[in-house]
């Protein structure tokens, strides 16, 4: 016993230590009494059940019982493999011999192997198999506590391009940084897993409402939109997110993952850099939508779409400087359908390309007529949706609209949202450069409501910010809105951008905006969206018809 390199204990049938080898004392510490103590007291609580099993096996069978347990040593714990055999002592009573071999090295290796089997080698995040465990655990826990949780699927926008253009080492480094950034947005109770090339899934414990999910998603989107500095390259990616909440959107792991995925693709289709929460009604396209869709195709053919024009006026002189073209659908038997009700569908079924092409050409032609009546140059602001912007033919279409109408490039302003720029910055850069070459200007619509960083203001040639009406609505009484407007106006002035305040409905708002340097306003106060005939009346009826000296740049 004394010569053995292992820790050896002689025990009685109850597991009380009768004798211990020198090695045992060395390992456990000279001050710890061993003789007369149950062996179980020298072992970590969590491992005592394994010890009991091994002891019973040894007493019952002729085979030794085995257990891997942690021996309490000098204030820490050492993995030992215990082999316990029984024999009869001189008096014929059963006794036990327990031999403990140090297996801490082996255990560490096993732990590493376990880690490798459950984690992604590149990012060290949990992999699909551990994710699956965590989801099943979350489901079990939710069933017990009655609290839900959410699954979030995200995919990097534009990662493939980076990987293809700059090579895998850069791609890998980018993924590692992305994984770190995403982890930082989550709490310890959440799980973030990497489940494919540039695909991640997060389990958000206790996130049960759409608002909670959106707020976490916003953090994720924001952090991914910051530039990545990788091996001397400044890279922009971004992320689109889909979410599903347990149990409303699925009561099993498979359903939750599938629905989060569906929602993510929807987020990509509708402009990227956003989070879409799964919605059964919307995503399974009910009857009503199908008939609306059919009606829309019909309506394009029958010319039921028309344009309203809303004046955009100088905040000080109130002179009309231009118009925003706003689409309407005059649906027989139903009435005027607002664009918010049909544009998302046109966007998803591709009809927006057709409609958008018509809007662009019609609006340019119309402005031509307006300015002839007004006797001075005017400009037109046209909304461009993400799908149009991605369309390869968009530049040709723009050239055609300008050529047909005879407008100057700078008389056309295209309104896009921040998401369009961030979802595919390389494409945006190419397109915007082409537009700049034609003097066509770009406005950021609904400025301040997107999830973007401001980096794009530096990168892209933007001419105008349209301050969203949610910030104008409570001016000037709301201190917060006033602060936001002031900051946007000052930012625009320093970057040499013009500003249009949207949704100006009263005199106080206009006064405040004019005083704080907002160049242009648009809203019910200075003119509702009107039919071309009505605009013509307005122009004839003596708007201040002075020649525009300060054309908005
Ligand atoms: P938007 O580009 O931000 O357009 C401004 C919206 O604010 C318009 O709603 C306009 O009617 C409304 N508005 C203007 N002044 C006021 C005001 O004083 N108070 C309030 N409460 N609202 C005001 P509308 O026409 O319903 O358009 C909604 C959105 O639909 C537009 O938002 C734009 O994103 C989209 N849209 C409209 N026409 C087109 C189009 O031809 N193509 C595309 N792709 N999108 C369009
Ligand atoms: Mg607009
Ligand atoms: Mg807007």
Give a verbal description of the structure:
This protein is an alpha/beta fold. It folds into three domains: 7-110, Beta-Lactamase (2-Layer Sandwich); 119-283, Alpha-Beta Plaits (2-Layer Sandwich); 289-550, EAL domain (TIM Barrel), CATH 3.20.20. It is built from 21 helices and 21 strands. An eight-stranded mixed β-barrel has the order 13-14-16-17-18-19-20-21, surrounded by four helices. The longest helix has 24 residues, at 351-374. It is elongated and about 125 Å long. Mean pLDDT is 89; it is low at 545-553. The structure holds ligand C2E and magnesium ion (2 copies).
Distinct bound molecules: ligand C2E, magnesium ion
Oligomer: single chain
User: Can you summarize the main beta sheet?
Assistant: 8 strands, mixed, barrel
CATH fourth-tier homologous superfamily of the largest domain: EAL domain
Could you write a compact summary of the structure shown?
The chain is an alpha/beta fold and 553 residues long. The protein contains 21 helices and 21 strands.
Q: How are the SSEs placed, and which strands pair?
A:
Blueprint: E1 7-12, E2 17-20, H1 22-28, H2 48-60, E3 65-73, E4 76-88, E5 94-102, H3 104-118, H4 128-145, E6 149-156, H5 159-166, H6 168-185, E7 191-196, E8 199-205, H7 210-225, E9 228-230, E10 233-235, E11 239-246, H8 253-269, E12 275-277, H9 280-283, H10 287-302, E13 305-314, E14 320-331, E15 335-337, H11 339-349, H12 351-374, E16 379-383, H13 386-390, H14 394-405, E17 412-416, H15 418-423, H16 425-437, E18 441-447, H17 455-459, E19 464-467, H18 469-472, H19 479-494, E20 498-502, H20 507-515, E21 520-522, H21 532-540
Parallel strand pairs: 11-12, 14-16, 16-17, 17-18, 18-19, 19-20, 20-21
Antiparallel strand pairs: 1-2, 1-5, 3-4, 4-5, 6-8, 6-11, 7-8, 9-10, 13-14, 13-21, 14-15
